[in-house]
Amino acid sequence: MADIDVVSLGEPLYEFSQIPQRPGRYLQGFGGDTMNCAIAAARLGARVAYITRLGDDEFGRQFLQLWRDEGLDTSGVVIDPAAHTAVYFITHGATGHVFTYLRKGSAASRLSAADLPLDLIRRARYFHTSGISQAISESACEAVRAAIEAAKRAGAAVVYDSNLRLRLWPLARAREVITATLSQADFFLLSLEDAEALCGLKNPDAILDWCHRAGAAVVALKLGAGGVVGSDSTRRSRIEGYKVDCVDATGAGDCFAGALLARMSAGDDFWQALRYANAAAALTTMGYGAVAPLPRPEAVRQLMNRG
User: Fold this and answer.
1) Residue 79: what pLDDT?
2) pLDDT tens sequence across 162-179
């Protein structure tokens, strides 16, 4: 019985985000692509559970408190006394964000198929994960594969975000794994930048054609400030981006995924949910950090009504 809207699996990272024009000063927060997505979906009305491993440390305890405060089901979270909770730093360079990670050997990277709470996965309407979740270790990659298989057997829809990070794995390996996984996805989400690296194409229509040939059923190609293009077997439509006062795009794509999941869980079709997710992602760029700016429903509807 699907009594949880979204089950998301991946790696949380404790966040230190540099305050622009104030060297050495950081805002503390929380990050990690699938975790951001989970919180975004919960804030926007979905029933959400998260699967990961945390270190037995202060950062891990803060994550648990955050998730309880946000209403996430944490029954799929394992505390690992032999590993640390991952950390990352965001600084702002001449060409944009600069990310520095302390994630090697983290608790989340020790996730394995044997750890999976299969009963929790089987209760989901949507199972969500990402390329980052696969890239952090071989055991985590195997866990993602096993989780997708369990979700599909139980009748859940699989939502997969490429989130390509070439600092984590070689491009050839990333292409192999991501292409194989997208063929199992009911909904495949990717950015224009990821797409260019994965398939060598720049034209949105050509990219979407490649995704469908690779087996993706429904695709959302995120264009950053340019909006998003959705595509399925019968329809293709572009939604323009919103003009907002953007200060930090960290987590915007993750918010997009969470908002899409929240609205589909609420009964919207893909196209309705796509428009909502496009607005929610724009709002996220108006604040610093990954989690703090994730919007509430009233803010999203207000922006959509503004047009």
Assistant:
1) 98
2) 999 999 999 999 999 999
Task: Tell me if residue 254 is catalytic.
Answer: yes
The arrangement of secondary structure in 4-10+33-83+109-306, i.e. its CATH architecture, is 3-Layer(aba) Sandwich (3.40)
* pTM for the whole structure: 0.94
Q: Give the contacts of 31 (CB within 8 A, at least 6 positions apart).
A: 12, 13, 14, 15, 88, 250, 251, 289, 290, 291
pLDDT, tens only, 210-238: 999 999 999 999 999 999 999 998 999 99
From the list 56, 69, 254, 268, the catalytic residue is: 254
Domain range summary for the chain, segments of one domain joined by +: 4-10+33-83+109-306
